[in-house]
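So, can you check this one?
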Amino acid sequence: MTLLVISPDYASHLLPLATLATAWQSAGERVVVATGPATAGLVESFGFERSDLPLGRGSNPGVIRAEQQPAGEDDALRGFFAATYRGMVETLRFQAEARRNDLLWEPVDRARAVLKVIEQVQPDQIVVDHLAFSARLALAAAAIPYVDVVLGHPSALPVGDEVYGYPTAWPAAFRPAGDELAALHRMCRTVRDEFTAEWNTALHALAPSAAPTTDAFTEHGDLVLYNYPAALHNPGRADLPVPHAFLGSAVRDETASADLRTWLDSSDQPFAYVSFGSFLSARADVLSTVITALRSTGLRVALASGSAQGLPPVPDDWLVRPYLPQAALLARASLAVTHAGNNSVTEALTAGVPMLALPFSTDQFAGAAAIESAGVGVVLDPNAATARDLASAVREALDCAPAARAIGTQLRRTPGRERAYALAHDHLPRLGQTQAARRERAAHS
């Protein structure tokens, strides 16, 4: 049996998908990952086969830098970083504008490339990142069943009157003006409609008889799996897809290297793990303020500095590297200081670690609001918080440890990869069986 995993060429997307796929691998099944070249090493590290399938202009092997992106994408990345300095609404507006060009990159060509990969691999089941829109377009056009994995906050798949790109909740630290929010909502609706028109045009080119959609952002696969803890999800969000399930998290098995184990074992002093993910480490100004704040707390620190430049000196017993094995360190950490990206949130909670969240963009605001509501952390505005604010918030966040540990115990009981494997086999027929049935119906029609 063969599983095909389709992912954009971004490590932050591929890591949780590859982790889920290890359940198929452990069951003795073949796993093929279709993605771009930047993450080829990551695919190899999991022991999977790889099929080349770029799905967008940009890529991210783990730490993203503008100078490593293709022409045009580098300026877009610099524009995004600049927008984060101007605040929440400006960042979301910038991202809404960018969505006109980056989510459906060469959709007909990429969709046909996806179908070619499927023809070559002959998978029995397919797992797709929800944000791989061109891939899901191909599967919709060809009526091929698949598992749709929502890797971000659940609102990445809108329900009801939600509009893609407009956060469903705001942390208390953010108080945008009503007129700014109204303008942002209008922009997100406009982009939604333009995106849907582009989706329908491409769908018609691929499958002329296919029915168009009224909102392409609400399209989804035959089984929707949310890489998110049910304990953090707003129960008021009704009309979720049927069938769907909350996986909790997709935390990979990760072993610290010998030198990291030496650092971990060198002291019984609690430590904070600090990371702004593969993108937002570029905000060295905020990381610098975090460093200043943490120096006053008595905690040791393990800091993944990413692309940040010009950070202030740190104590000798701190650990600072561009990249750190996040899952391995969170297993021993007392606090996570994070941008509230979904991988960071789910991995911290699986380890039972409370958070100090500093959201900058996209669904990080809704994710941070959920952290706040569930009492598993504290949220501040990264553009407004001072070192004194952060130091005080660290102490508050540490008091959230019991709630975080309780959720972590639940999440560790049934790992997300095991749930994904069982659900996929329960709810979806083997693709070969589906194709055979389709051929039989065609022969008798």
